[in-house]
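Let's see one such:

===
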Amino acid sequence: MLKHINEVHLTGIKISEGIAFSKACLFNEDRHKNVAVFKIKVSEKKNEKNRLKRAIDLASIQIGKLIKDVESRIGVSESKIFVAQKLILEDVSVIEEMYEEIDRTSTNAEGSVIRILEGYESRLLEVDDEYIKARATDIGEIRRRILDSLSEVNPSLQCAGQQNCEHEKDRIIVARELTPTLTVSLDTKNAAGFVTEHGGILSHAAILAKSLGIPVVSGIKNVLNHVFCGTEILIDGFSGEIYIWPSDQTKEKFKIRRSHIVKEIQIAEPVPQMRILANINLAQDIDEAIEYKAEGVGLYRTEFEFLAQGRILSEEEQFERYSKVVKSMNGKPVYFRLLDIGGDKASSFFNLPIEANPYLGFRGSRLLLARPDILNPQVRALARASLFGPVFILYPMIIDLKQFETLKSMVCAEISDIDHGDIKHGVMFEVPSACLEAERILSIADFASIGSNDLIQYLFAVDRNNEHVAYDYSPEREVFWSLVKTIVLASEKTAKPLSICGEIAGSIQFLHKLKEAGLKSVSVSARLISDLRFHLMHDK
């Protein structure tokens, strides 16, 4: 039996929400570390090229099967992640480069694959764009898949731990990097969660993990030095924390049995104490919101539709997604946040400028004001969707009244020639300057939502995605609640609806404090709705 001494508590970056408790299985990312690379004779070059061609063909077939599997199991949008990999794999110019490497250096097929594709990886990682850097993962996956084919290794979980490891059996997978193939190859039936050193919230793997509902925490430095095969790990995907060899007290705190997490789905009816709406990232998420009886969609993070596709969506494509959500809600409110890009959600296809400090730069409403090519198709699609039910437009990162009025005027002018239904205009309170003039803004706006994640970040000048300063990202400080109460009072004085979203909105720990502050509406992950309602029923 494995022994342990003390609990180790580590904080990283939350990638996908959820709680998981199980034993660790270490993903073997070094299985090609000692791959044989050697010189070949001139007479052997043709054979090596043929080996490489067969390996590429086999890898292409494997990805083709994966595309169909992901399309049926998760969704068409998510399957396109692997379509992109297949296109890279079959790129004639890349294949020719590998052939030429064999001719030029008289190196075997393995050496050619490593040199050419590692070269692409390193160049992508040097680009000062998080979205481009994340694409280096795709090249790495293609390299590993071709090498697996060359060595006739099945591309599956290769545990780096004990030989008797029962991998793929409700284990928490620990790896240096979360990759798309690793994520979908080990679905929720096999993988309890993931803990990694690297893998950002914009990565394809993060999008897949969220779609599958698998808890993921990244940014845990040297994580492979902390655990071995069979180490007990508890993941708190809501806070970005992990507990290695969690104590009995910690396990009790998370209401987890020693051997496994209890995952009973219980649906709770709405309660009078608080209106609870659902957050969604993609149109397909609406089914889960309905399943948990959400009282509406409180935050539709529309930028994730673009990030999932890896490109800018047309007005028609946006209309199809937005109208589906509005129709599905059948008259219940849907709050659409206008594209909130920039900061930690910068992507090359938006053609944004390179900035030294993107969190304080060209993002949110500031960006939308300068980019009508991005704003106009979205608001036209929203206006068309409003014919099927009420649409609430949330303006992100508003800094003051003037900015809100200017952007609202642009939106109204753009949709003035379109037949539309009921549209309301509201602000996200997430920048302290806007919060300090909440009453003036709410005298003009139709409603508001407190974006607690960004508000905490800007109030305390702390990057919430930086593991080095994560300890300062905390809503515990009284000054934060004082600011929340200021916004609530402004809402009451102007009789304008107010809600809150972000991590604290879905936290049982802060539920009572939210009520005390006067908040009567929250927007959370659909899977948290029932738990919040059960607690509200018993909250005295």
Remarks:
- The chain has 21 helices and 16 strands.
- The first helix runs from residue 45 to 73.
